[in-house]
Specification:
492 residues; globular; alpha+beta; ATP-dep_Glu-Cys_Ligase-2; UCP005522; Circularly permuted ATP-grasp type 2 domain-containing protein; CP_ATPgrasp_2
Length: 492
């Protein structure tokens, strides 16, 4: 491999193989190290295997001491809590590249908020046949309880997680929008802390955009959408409890913002206001950052068997006495079938061309698309429209004829539930693999985090770079055993 850094025979990079048909973020097509990676690669090139193992153990200890865990649900691990997998070799994004991403993320989320307001009010976008009415009304996440109601500032998706990939053409594509309860931002902050502690020398040699201000920005956004007339709002984070896979994040964010972490049993409704039980009596709550799905937030309105929510919450919300973040009903756009219309939604509401590209998507409920999917299963990724975390995904190129036939039958029974996309060549990034004890290319994506409040937009400078640790795997989700990297956005 050619590069401007001489790799020694015993370097942890000496067995690194470039893959011709994939976009490598660290090396160019000739094998030369990209300019902005030279300093960090030079440092890693000098490390012995024992050095690297010690640094990895140090990083693990940092995560352990912070309590950074995630529940993994796979064939071999049923809800087992483990330390969040972290790779020390950082991902670097240039300022020019980032500025374009940020503009595209803000554009996309502004249009999504306008779309949500419209489908719960005048429905002009449906009347003008930009988006099919049946697609919205058949969604399990479209809530009749939200019809005619306007959240403060007309903001529905206060916090969004936009998943992006870089294809082999070097361009970024939006893979999906996460608009209900997007998770992962606490790992961005924890990754940065671990990186600073473990590799302070190389970190200080780069001019990197900070991420530590996210909790401050999050709290400011939450406060901006408090009910009208509330100047000093009391805000809380609502969690399902310690057995939830993302409980670490819930507690981390509450502590970082200096607000209370509560469960449904800690809150109650009285005369259309929400109160928190405290040692000093009841305290009125103005904003609830909920990490509970719509179905469970109010047993009087949704699932009667829910013990996670607050009876009567939706009544308080519709009266304007409390704000819920994200708004109930945002899942109507979280639907992966609606994703196909986002470019048209952007043009319709903003009269602008989309800055970020969509991945071409087939809706199985459409006759022509259904026929194509049935005939090309081995070349497609098929996904349920209403699941997250990498669950329920069918990878055609890794399937047998029998598996394809079985999944085709599943699609036939409920075509509305599935979409399909071509198998995108996610970019790869240098990642240390413990089994081989060398750096190897692994597929990577990026979850960006966007905040939208009343007259307030903010995109976290970097986001969560997720890594598919299994060789050849395209599924990067932490819930499926993936890992992550610190993401550096350079100042200039």
């Amino acid at each position: 491999m050619k590069d401007s850094i001489q790799l020694s025979d015993n370097s942890v990079f000496s067995s690194y193989n470039l893959e011709k048909n994939l976009y490598d973020e660290v090396f160019d097509q000739t094998g030369k190290v990209k300019k902005y990676y030279q300093k960090v690669l030079s440092l890693f090139n000098k490390l012995t295997l024992q050095d690297l193992k010690k640094l990895n153990e140090f990083a693990r200890a940092s995560f352990f001491n912070q309590g950074v865990t995630f529940a993994v649900y796979s064939d071999n691990m049923k809800g087992v809590e483990r330390i969040f997998p972290f790779d020390l070799f950082p991902r670097i994004i240039t300022l020019k590249e980032w500025e374009n991403l940020e503009k595209g993320i803000i554009q996309r989320n502004r249009a999504i908020n306008m779309f949500l307001y419209d489908i719960y009010h005048d429905r002009k976008v449906l009347k003008d046949k930009i988006v099919p009415s049946e697609l919205i009304f058949s969604s399990n996440y479209y809530l009749k309880e939200m019809i005619g109601f306007t959240p403060p500032g007309k903001v529905y998706t206060h916090i969004s997680g936009t998943d992006l990939i870089k294809h082999k053409d070097g361009e970024y594509y939006v893979l999906e929008d996460n608009l209900r309860c997007p998770s992962g931002v606490s790992y961005v902050l924890s990754n940065r802390e671990a990186m600073k502690r473990t590799l302070s020398k190389v970190f200080s040699s780069y001019n990197i955009k900070p991420v530590h201000d996210y909790p401050e920005q999050l709290l400011s956004m939450i406060q901006s959408v408090a009910p009208e007339g509330v100047d000093n709002p009391t805000c809380v984070v609502l969690t399902p409890g310690m057995y939830n896979s993302a409980y670490y994040e819930h507690s981390f964010l509450a502590q970082s913002m200096g607000i209370q972490l509560v469960e449904g049993r800690d809150l109650y409704v009285d005369k259309n206001f929400v109160y928190m039980k405290t040692l000093h009596g009841a305290k009125r709550i103005d904003v609830i950052y909920r990490r509970i799905d719509d179905d469970f937030i109010d047993p009087l309105c949704f699932r009667a068997d829910s013990v996670l929510g607050i009876p009567g919450l939706m009544g308080c919300y519709r009266e304007g006495n409390v704000t819920i973040i994200n708004a109930p009903g945002t899942g109507a756009v979280d639907d992966k079938a609606v994703y196909t219309y986002i470019p048209d939604i952007i043009k319709y509401y903003l009269s602008e061309e989309p800055i970020l590209k969509n991945v071409h998507t087939y809706r199985c409920e459409l006759e022509e698309d259904f026929k194509y999917v049935m005939e090309n299963m081995e070349n497609l990724v098929v996904k349920p429209v209403d699941e997250s975390g990498g669950y329920g995904i069918f990878m055609g190129h890794k399937s047998t004829a029998e598996q394809r036939k079985e999944f085709q039958e599943r699609i036939k029974k409920n075509p509305r539930k599935y979409i399909a996309q071509p198998i995108m060549s996610l970019s790869v990034h240098s990642t240390f693999i413990e089994e081989s004890e060398f750096f190897e290319p692994r597929h990577i994506d990026l979850r960006s985090f966007c905040l939208m409040g009343k007259n307030k937009d903010f995109v976290l400078k970097g986001g969560l770079s997720r890594v598919a640790l299994k060789k050849g795997s395209l599924i990067v989700n932490s819930s499926q055993g993936g890992g992550s990297k610190d993401t550096w956005v350079l100042e200039g």
